[in-house]
Amino acid sequence: MTKTPIITARDVDVFYGQKQALDKINLEIPENKVTSLIGPSGCGKTTFLRCINRMNDLVDICRVEGEIKIADQDIYAANVDVVALRSQVGMVFQKPNPFPKSIFDNVAYGPRIHGLTSSKAEMEELVEWSLIKAGLWEEVKDRLQETGTGLSGGQQQRLCIARAIAVKPRVVLMDEPCSALDPIATAIIEELIDELRKNFTIIIVTHSMQQAARVSQRTAFFHMGNLVESGPTKTIFTSPKDERTQNYITGRIG
């Protein structure tokens, strides 16, 4: 990789109690690109994703070893402010989870907590920017005070994306963001991901190899807690180095 990566993982091991979920993961993630994490269920993709914003800290029996750096800062160092880290690393979950608040307040929530705006007008501008970036503004601009939970599934997921980007993070993590959506909503989100990478670095866990091929520039294949290989998406899908990758892509394992 020619450019300096924004995220570097070195020898990352993750344990849930005695069970090892990830084994010596070494991966570099470039800035302003979409990186897909693919592999069978239970292979460690989501566990790795959750390491990047320390979501695994919330699991009592989880232990993370090794080093993950974001822009040269070791995010597991003792002095790291986890709240500040999570404002830099947004997360969009598999199932849309808007807050039971208005559309406006869903998006304004993060900026309010982090004190990102100093006036009502500034906040309104930021909410509009976020909804435009999330491809939702035209659909909701006249109903910002309506509850976010009243939107359709695809709209709710775009609202969650708007909420994640409202604090202007450097990285956006997406854990199977389309798995609960219909094909039309999925196509809208995929188009959006391509647009968002101009402003953000995106890491997406997906079960759909077609989706990985469509949206990402780089792909990492996980299998049984190991990172088998990573590289440009086209290379991984057309001429993988490892037989396990070939077998997964052709449907022999999965």
Q: Would you kindly provide a written description of the structure presented here, covering whatever features stand out?
A:
Residues 7-249 form the ABC transporter domain. It comes from Amylibacter marinus. The chain is of the alpha/beta class and 254 residues long. It has a single domain (7-249), classed as 3-Layer(aba) Sandwich (Rossmann fold), CATH 3.40.50.300. The chain is built from ten helices and ten strands. The strands form two sheets. Strands 6-7-8-3-9-10 form a six-stranded mixed β-sheet, with helices on both faces. A four-stranded antiparallel β-sheet has the order 2-1-4-5, covered by helices on one side. Strand 4 and strand 5 form a beta hairpin. The protein is globular and about 55 Å long.
Broad CATH class: Alpha Beta
In total, the number of domains comes to 1
CATH fold name: Rossmann fold
Strand order of the largest sheet: 6-7-8-3-9-10
Mean pLDDT: 95
Number of helices: 10
SSE string, helix = H, strand = E? EEEHEEHEHHHHEHEHEEHH
Number of strands: 10
What is the radius of gyration? 18 Å
Described by strand count, sense and barrel closure, the largest sheet is: 6 strands, mixed
Straight-line N-to-C gap? 29 Å
Could you give a quick summary of the protein structure above?
With 254 residues, the chain is an alpha/beta fold. It has helices spanning 45-51, 82-88, 103-113, 120-133, 137-140, 153-165, 183-196, 209-215, 233-238, 243-249; strands at residues 7-16, 19-29, 34-38, 62-70, 73-74, 89-92, 171-175, 201-205, 218-223, 226-232.
Summarize this structure as a short list of keywords or feature phrases.
alpha/beta; 10 strands; 35% helix; 254 residues; globular; four-stranded antiparallel β-sheet
